[in-house]
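Data deposition worksheet. Section B asks for the primary sequence of the deposited chain exactly as it was used as input, without tags or linkers unless they were present during the calculation. Section C holds the resulting structure in token form. Section D is free text for depositor observations; keep each observation to a single sentence. Incomplete worksheets are returned to the depositor.
Section A, Depositor: J.P.
Section B:
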Amino acid sequence: MKYTRLTKEQLEELHPEFINFLATQSITAEEWKSIKEEKPAVAEEQLDVFSDLIWEGVLQRVEFLEKIEPLQMHLFSMAEKEMRLISVRLRQPEIDLTTQEGFQWFKKNYLADSVEYLTASKSYGEDPKVDIFGLIQQGAVITKGDLFNWFDEIIQ
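Section C:
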């Protein structure tokens, strides 16, 4: 398995897609039920293959990721050959960016001396999707890039 198996909730949400996946392999609902009961290892394998297919499709479309923690933000832009990072760090431990109040404070004080910015670029490894997946595994979430683009303009 290249990525990770989808959660039970994700699989339930993608039930119609999973049915289509089984149909492309000529597996009927009755055959699937039989596979689950009689060959659980084969059923597990099918779930893994389906999960990887879903992750491949999702990861191929990712353009931006964000990871917001109490005192820092990591904003990523996924270009074709490299990822760009804008990192924001607060030097005020009483402010928590993960709360509405903390983020409101930040929006008013983003130019304060207690806010540090860092930018970086990094080339992808062999497979960009694996790099992107690694960031998601570390807590980054897929976004439309509003924060990244806003900071990108400010920093330049």
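Section D:
Residues 72 and 89 are 4 Å apart (CA to CA).
The first strand starts at residue 64 and ends at 68.
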